[in-house]
Amino acid sequence: MPSSRTASFSPAVSEPDIYDLFAVKYATHGRTQAANFVDPPDPHEAMPIDYFIWAAVSKTRTYVIDMGFTEETAIDRGRTFIRCPAEALELVGVEAKDVKDVIVTHFHYDHIGNFDKFPKADFHLQDREMAFATGRHMLNPEYGASMNVDDVVGIVRHLYGHRVQFHDGDAELASGISLHHIGGHTDGLQCVRVMTKRGWVVVASDACHLYANMETRNPFPISFDLDTVFAGYDRLSELAPSPGHIVPGHDPLVLDRYPAVSEDLKGIAVRLDVDPVPQ
Ligand SMILES: [Zn+2]
Fold it and tell me: Cα(141) to centroid of ligand 1, in Å?
């Protein structure tokens, strides 16, 4: 745009957009440490995990991060379903039917169900995750067991409907929000970095299931490539200004450390754009 330049002219430095960032719990699973660590300190000790859906909301844009699983899948897999994750977004002011962008961190069953509840959305995913979920590695039951074939086929149908946006590595989706390929847990796993009023916050999803996986360098036992899981921990640390800016994918402590969205939503929905309470 033409402008009259004077000695005092200085172009505006463009600051990234700022997002509100929420985590909403939709399910849980009682289990022991044996299911959460490659080398469990006490395999018989109870250690439940939670299931979350995330939303990043700026003045002009809304991104939903993952879609959780359906009640049917919860029954099939023996998980405790608390609320439909797509409907639960309403608790933080997001209507699934209006969402235009859904980020798919990876194709595991607990992250890609419910795609039909986002009729206007494009799905953002890594090239490598589509290749992983539809290629030779699914012949290995160890990798295929965490996928629901109907969910994978559903995303493939949306590909043919031109509603998939592919990314290869790191990508800036819009000002203040970017995707970063991590791999390890699945070959095409990605995390999401979001600018908030407290700086960059990294939604790790399953690049770090639980705080303790990363803090004690003792990974979650389901992985495609363990070396890459460790490299992923380092990458998360590079992307975040501090460990307190990394949000693990399945840790019930997230609900203790971050403030509830409101009094009514204690134990259900928290704000990740506010500093966590020190433990
Ligand atoms: Zn998961």
Answer: 17
Token pair in block for residue 87: 């409907």
pTM of the model: 0.94
What value does the mean pLDDT take over residues 119-145?
97
Sign of the CA dihedral with 39 first, then 43, 45, and 50 last: positive
**Cα 2 to averaged position of ligand 1 atoms, centre (Å):** 50
Q: Which residue has the higher pLDDT, 61 or 2?
A: 61
The torsion angles phi and psi of 187, rounded to 5 degrees, stand at -65, -35
Instruction: Give the DSSP per-residue string, 91-142.
Output: GGT--GGG--EEE----SHHHHTTGGG-TT-EEEEEHHHHHHHTSGGGGSHH
List pLDDT tens digits, range 93-113: 999 999 999 999 999 999 999
47 C-beta neighbours (distance < 10 Å), count: 20
CA of 28 to the centre of ligand 1 (A): 11
Calculate Rg over the CA atoms of the chain.
Answer: 19
Closest CA to 257 of 241, 274, 240, 242: 274
CA of 11 to the centre of ligand 1 (A): 44
**Strand-strand pairing, 122-126 and 101-103:** parallel
Is the pLDDT at 230 greater than 80, yes or no? yes
Percent of the chain at pLDDT above 70? 95
Dist. CA 49 → ligand 1 center (Å): 10
CA distance 35 to 191: 22
